[in-house]
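Recall the central idea of this unit: under ordinary conditions, the amino acid sequence of a chain determines the structure it adopts. In this exercise we apply that idea directly, starting from the sequence alone.
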Amino acid sequence: MERIIIRDHQPIAPFAEPARELRILNKPLWLLQRDLLKHHCKGSLEINSIEDLFTQQNSNSDELLVYRDNLYFNGNLIEAFISAARTSGRACQIAFRASNPATGVRGDPTIERHALQLTRGFVARTAQPCLDEGREVCADVYLAELYYFPHGPVQEPIPLIIETQSHEMGYYHIPSYMAHKGDLTYQIPLRAFLSLESWVHVFIANILMGVFTDAAAQDVKMSRARLKDVLHWKREDWRIFVDKAGFSAAAIWQRLNPFEEMWRNHFLASHALVKVGKNCSIDPSATIHGPTVIGDNVYIGPGVVIANSIIGNNVNVMQGSQVMLSVVSDRCFLPFNAGLFMTTLMENSMVAQNSTLQLTVVGRNTFIGANNCFTDFNLQNEPIKVMHQGEAVEVHLPVLGSAVGHNVKIGSGFVVYPGRMIESNTVIIFDHDQGLISKTVRGHDVDDVDVGTGEPRRIIYHWPNVYHDPAQPDHPEPPGASLEQIQPAYPNGSCRSNGDHHDASALHEHQSLPAPARSISQPTGSVSQQHQRVGVSPTSARRSIR
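Accordingly, the structure predicted from this sequence is:
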């Protein structure tokens, strides 16, 4: 069978390149597609649209598989589609069932909940003649650009309905004061299919339809072939039971074997669920639970926790770091205490110490400095929106992080709200005179010691102003100050909280939050009348940074 690839040249923000070049499950999408199809197809030809296939004067009557190169699909889906299409003997186009409230028909949960957002790659059709499990029926469906031609493009393809075998899975419970729905769940397919047209789709392909799908497959397998139902087992259940018995026996032996790696002390860490490449160094105190794949030449330090993730080649995960439900590509570096949750790092990127990334996508050759936090939840219970084709669009996800492009450098101390993008080839440096120490801070005489306490007397700053200076004896020790007296005020008279304020207007690149006032309220009579400013203005700070 020959491959025909329909090119999609639309660049995806913030990466500024088409989907085929982006990393999905630690491979460029075009390479992932090729590897999944290598057992079915030989050779390839690229075209601009499906119409080109029909208009070209081509006498080739070979079996053809045609797909758009921004599609993500896994092996289970492509096997199901090719098998069903060959069985029909007809030209086919992949289709998924759509909901019809009038008839009570329920559509494919995964497609309707996760795959239709922000995309034009699915086309809705009502009362469409199609094939469903070998029968020709009329149904409401969503069509996508994946085709099969048994004898070349000699006839129009008929829609072929494929079930994604969706399973509802959750990962934590949200308290009622944060959300009304309680448990946070996703529809996870065993047969994954997605059209990549936004960075949100990159997140979904890697996490929800990638590592989460692997976990769902294991969950389904373990839920089958239960002994209490042995009288109703089918042939497939007997095969699964043999695999389960072998898996359980091997996991118990690995736990009891004194020569086995110390971190394989749980059945989730068994060889069946945690695949480790060549020349890896894993500290015995690390905790690794599967399904997890670790590449070659990987270092995993003391106290590291890795769960249900993909780790590429030549990756360093230093002590105390945590990687959960994430994809870390080749040559990435996580210094101590870095945290990734449902996050994708493309190749050669670094997340420095004490930084936390949640539901975030990071491009290649990108540096994220220390003590940064990429948040994923809107504390004001407002819907999360992302910029898509110049508009703020709601994504209908309860939690979502942000996207960072290629070749980006981010300094320390930033908080990034949900749904934001940092485009490729940018450098962001923290430069705020209320919170940035950009020059020498004057101290007090090191020999001046308080007789009563024996402690050295210090200059006290309510940054950036001097609050108490022991060198001025006519000023008494500062009394306790209330939060309102020392916290910077905003123009509307309120103090900004640490909650994630998420307004659609804040997504636009030319709009910003109001700047805090330049002064700090001081208790009457307790502060030097001549405040000594040790901060600098944004302009002079930029000049001093090299």
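The chain is about 15% helix and 25% strand.
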